[in-house]
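Reviewers of the previous submission asked for a worked example of the structure-prediction workflow described in the proposal, so we include one complete record here. The input consisted solely of the amino acid sequence. No template or homolog information was supplied to the procedure at any stage.
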Amino acid sequence: MDRLGWTVGQTYIAYGVHFGIRSNSPAIMHRLIETLPAGAKESKRHRSDTIFSFLHGGNDSNVHSRIKRFNIIYRNGDIVGKSVGNVDKLIATLESDIHFCIAELAENHFFIHAGVVEWNGRGILIPARSQRGKSTLVRKMIEAGATLYSDEYAVLDSTGRVFPFPRPIHIRDAKGNITRISAAELGARIGNKPITSDLILFSEYNPGAVWSPRPISRGKAILKVLANCVSVRRKPRPLLKVINKVVGPAERVVSPRGEAEEVVEWCRRRIYR
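From that input alone, the workflow returned the following structure tokens.
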């Protein structure tokens, strides 16, 4: 690995996690830096917990060429993905892996797979894994006037407050291709202070489903949130305490949904009543 000709690299710190990124291409390195989470800073420490690498072979996606120049991404010494061409898709994959690593190793914060917005002073938490429709729902909410906090992770401190983890919203098509839409493109505001989770929506997209929200007990809600936590195996006890603080005082509802608009309208009526 260390003999592959890395020409640019830097160590960063985010949420207490030291990690390195490197490439053989300054242009690729610049794009990788742009994907780092808000608040990531350069670190002077030479050793890092994890090293992410992008070996750039070229932008040519002609798979029929006799000479195939692969682009390869690594996490430490393990190959995370490779392709001929498809630079954008590999950068998106490495971005997700970097964010997951931070979520997994963060010491003083807890990461939940969830969308988060603030609307009329109320925090709305939408726990769900990737490709369950939460990014689409977050997008529709901010288009309706909500403030963006995250479409991927809810970042909690020990008191249960949710901190901003903004990034471009990722919308996947049927083939798995990702379109990145910035908050600026949507005319959205980005949260800049911690909030509480006043409303928790347990809802995943199901074509043809009817949005029919019903209350969910505290115990079941805790289990559902824990199922979407990243570090549940590393620090289960402190995590459970935090989730109790999040779930206890919140309004909690569960229902599958069809199109996002009916959920957005329900939320609008709920928060402005």
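The first strand starts at residue 8 and ends at 14. We consider this example representative of the routine output the project will generate in years two and three.
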